[in-house]
Design goal:
This protein has helices at residues 56-97, 101-132, and strands spanning 8-13, 16-23, 32-40, 45-48. It is built from 2 helices and 4 strands, in the order E-E-E-E-H-H. The chain has a 4-stranded antiparallel sheet with strand order 1-2-3-4, with helices on one face. It is α+β, with helices and mostly antiparallel strands.
């Protein structure tokens, strides 16, 4: 069974990735990965590795990966927010039905401050959108 390997491999890092060119065309038929660049997804910077010059094909693949990665991270962000809404509802149910006085004493002030901060930001942002629209 043979599987077609990708030409490039992106090792994800906190702010981007290390980019490798995948090579199986060698005498031992081993998979070799040659690092060609480091990319920073936040500022769009692409640094060739060592003295390497990136080809147009390399640059195109890196650009495509960066666009796909940004879209994935944006989707994860909104998914996290939807989960946070669910978690707020679960927390409300817990506080109403299961929490002991000691547990409530432990979390109430921090929850109230976080919720006040969130509410302030949401109200301000909604007012800004209403003014524009």
């Amino acid at each position: 069974m043979t599987a077609e390997l990708p030409e490039y491999y992106f090792r994800v890092r906190e702010n981007g990735a290390a980019v490798f060119k995948v090579d199986t065309e060698n005498r031992q038929r081993r998979i070799e990965m040659d690092q060609i660049a480091v990319i920073n997804i936040r500022n769009g910077e692409v640094k060739p590795h060592g003295q390497r010059s990136l080809t147009d094909s390399d640059k195109a693949e890196i650009t495509r990966w960066m666009e796909d990665r940004k879209a994935l991270l944006a989707q994860r962000d909104i998914d996290d927010i939807h989960r946070a809404v669910d978690y707020l509802n679960v927390t409300t149910q817990w506080a109403q039905s299961k929490a002991t006085d000691e547990q409530l004493d432990d979390v109430t002030d921090r929850l109230l401050m976080a919720m006040h901060d969130l509410r302030s930001v949401l109200v301000r942002k909604k007012a800004d959108r209403l003014e524009k629209g």
